[in-house]
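#struct-help
A.M.: can someone run this one for me? Single chain, 445 residues.
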Amino acid sequence: MIGSHELKERNLYLNKLIAFQDTEPVKIVTGIRRCGKSSLLKLMVAHLKENGIRDEQIIEINFESHAFKKMTGDNLYDYVKEHVHPQKRMYLFFDEVQRVTGWEDAVNSFRVDFDCDIYITGSNAYLLSSEYSTYLSGRSVEIKMLPLSFREFLLFHDFELKETRSALGGTRRQVFDKSGERYELREVFDAYMRFGGMPGIADAGLDQEKAMVLLDGIYSTVVMRDILEREKRRGQKRITDPILLRKIILFLADNIGSNVSVSSIGNILVNEGLLEEGKRKGRPSAHTVQAYVNALLESFFFYDIKRFDIKGKEYLRTLGKYYIVDIGLRNYLLGFRNRDSGHALENIVYFELLRRGYDVAIGKVDNSEVDFIATRMDDKLYVQVTESMLSEDTRRRELAPLQKINDNYEKIVLTLDTGIDSSYEGIKSVNLMDWLVERRSRNEI
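D.P.: on it. Structure tokens below:
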């Protein structure tokens, strides 16, 4: 995707950048390592050039490059000042800017001193911490980038989705590769569930061994650079044990979609023999575990989701859940096997709802649970996720929480097997794969 590879479209994010072009806020693209932030900046540069911006108006720096490894905020300011054309509007692109000590002062000075439009990326939410926001409060906009959606996965792997006639006169979606080979949509979805949505996987051609190497590199970089190294730069020593960090990562990966209490993680790790209590001088405190979990959230490795009491209309402090940013990373960590596929499907749906601009919570209604309440301005959607709606018991279990909700917002069950009925008392049963590939606006691929 980078270098000699053709840049693939990421219109969902590019259109957001274009919407803010030539506005005052600094455009900050955040997301886990290797989810496509660098390529997004390249796509924005290409857009500018296509629309008349000249090369000398554009300054690009990738701080992962060895050439800029030792650059400080002062060096950065001097470098940009030297390359600015005083009579022209400049476009500044800084990739992985968090690696530069004092970058905040430099970026703020560019805003004040030059006629410029600024775009930066970072792989850690620390970029937008309160310490940073004092410099640019109200003067930055965050574009949150995620690994590939299923639609993007099809595009990146050169699959074309077509509707074909079925024998019964209806239509069905099938997928064709570059050579015209035909696949069922489920086959390609299974590949997405196995390999995940990291863009670099497309270069590996869905080769499991190559995918493992790529995912191992992403994992190592996140842990070493965005967690352990960042902790050193901040001058803090809360996260010093890579073994404990890995155990917590494995625990959270194994328990996506399950109710988890941070205070219980250390106890569970000891009780299950994953941590040896004697060697560790006792169980890690809840405070310590919380610091490690926060670091994983800040590096966009995991996302947490709160519970919302639908009838009481308030967020609850009780158990939340965690989802892993990429299902391929989970398979890398835990092994490729058909494990806990219901929660894996939930994981896919959670991030798709985020891509579609929803705020997402778990819904509590009496003693039962709705997988997701998704809200977006005045729109609200209640979502259950299950592998199949074929059995009577499953239908009863999945529909019961939704039937307790008395408002008129849309309620759907997303499933791989919808069963015969497409609606139950107004609750829609929707094929999950069809829901993932439907085009929702002209801004999408």
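A.M.: thanks! The chain has a mean pLDDT of 88.
D.P.: also worth noting: Residues 384 and 398 are 7 Å apart (CA to CA).
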